Amino acid sequence: MILGLLCMIVANAAVLLGTQAILTSLRVAEPCLRIVAFLLLRLLLISLAVLTLGFCGFLHPVVIGALGVVALIVLLANGWHRRIRLPRLPDVHPVLGVFLALVLARLLAQAWFFAPYPGDALSYHLPKVAEWVRAQGFTREMGLDTHVAFPAGFELIEMWWVVFLRHDVVIELAGIEFLFLGFVSVYATARRLDLNENLSAFAAVVYCLTPGLYFQATACVNDAPVAALYVATIALAVGNASWATWLLPIGLGIGIKATYAYACGGIVLLGFLSRREQRPYSTRVDWLLSGLSLAVGFSWWVRNLVWFGNPIHPVGTRGLAGANPIQFGPKTDSLFGNVGDLVENRLYDAATAYGPYVSDISGWGAAVFSCGLLALTVALREDPRIRRLGAAFFVSLIVTLALVIRDPWSMRFVLFFSALPAIAMAHLGSTSRTIFFAGSLGVALTFVGTLLPKELPRDVFHEVARQDWRDRSLAKLLQVDVSSDSIGYYVDSRNIAYLLYRPDFSRRVVYLRAKTADEFLRQVQKEQLRLVYAAPSKPEQYELLKECVARGRLRKLQGFIYAVE
Amino acid sequence: MAFLVSLVAWRVLSVPPSGLWKDWMVILAVYWAVTVFVRKSPAWPALTASTSIFLLIVHAWGHLPLTFRVLGFVP
Q: With an 8 Å Cβ cutoff, is B21 touching chain A?
């Protein structure tokens, strides 16, 4: 663990200094926009490093640490450390400063005490990470979920936070990085709209406290990163960055989730509306970095084309049927259904408590509902720059809602939108202290609402938090904490595969795909499995399991765990 | 203004009368219509803050019990 920690420190130092060195050749002038560019470049460097080492089979802490040492020596020898200029902290009101510190401290505490919990993360995001850690490189085995082949750009960043310690205790830092990117991007956009530093920071914190976004950041799911990259693209667009620089977040976003591409309609509109504005021309370095970003993003789609003959596998031109369906192409039913749900019910957030999936709610929170939307009506009327920004956000909202199926969780694909009312709220707050105070009440209520997600209510949270950090996981609560160092996994789609690996990835998980009982038992014997986690829901798989039990080869131990006889 | 009138008319027709007072679109439409006339008035900030607090109460009324349940304040 100590060696891993050292490698982690060295590698992160090298990435930070390397990012700083590259940033000097990027043509971004404004200080707050430079921070956005810095964060994007850092994410790009990490993605490139993990992607390259993953394909080469060298995802090992010592290898990455050694490469970090070499990079660090080269950078230090060239004197890059002497050119570091730390950005000045914004001049904010002391109360806001204390509140920001409180939010950050709480976020870090949540990252420490939460264990991965959402179904999507446990079923198809994190099992990939676990397989990569165990194999020290990318694997063809990704699990049994229908969605395993989806782009894994966010998993690259999560991998960065687990590979050194070979433990998932700080895996949530990947999401927090993106939340910070969202914070800085909204801040930069607000500054560009002539709001002062205090109000810009206020807009940024309102956005980051958007409950859906906030809980996603510590839940290992990838809609918050998509939203953060969207607002980063907006910040670069509004901040007059060169055209090529826009492609930095676009490449990364496309590599995380297709919903980022859905939202790009608004960005294209913003580009069109601002086409006559003077922008610095794109240098070769700009184009090179953007090309790399696009290469990282499209690598997953190319991989799917090579492996499955379809870049959007498993989705076809008819979408994806099954328990977790996916729509292909825009549909008016989805548009009207999603918009209707949003404006009629979900904005009130009255159906369920907050969580990363925002089930049947918008997850935009009290501040956006009470003051943000109201402020938007004023800002859209009075400020042409916000009107232009609003047009981009609304187009992105509408296009995304037309392209995603109408289900209880569809609002998590539009978590970028609350950045607009957050900025409008700060804009309105600049006109009167009374209004600012009224908006702050909403922020306070949102802060309370983002203490615990609904998936981890107080009792469950206590159970998770009181575990030793080395073993912290939901496995005990779900009765899947067994002693064997290898286990079979027989499930037809969404389930809890990741929990079986243990937080330190010490357990081997064998995915069983047998069609007959004989085949199943042969595979179990070949892999020398003593335990099997079996929770099929398809009738034929359930019959197979029953047959194995009837033959006396499987015996139910607890929950979904079976002992192999 | 025609847009606001048609918006309110739509809500009056589609929302039960008992729910109109807490319909966010009606509240915002009325606020918008009023601010057209009182935007320059010294009463405008107080009106805006009051509307915001009213919307906050509407939101809290629906959501706060759910948050309290997660936090273990209510069973």
A: no
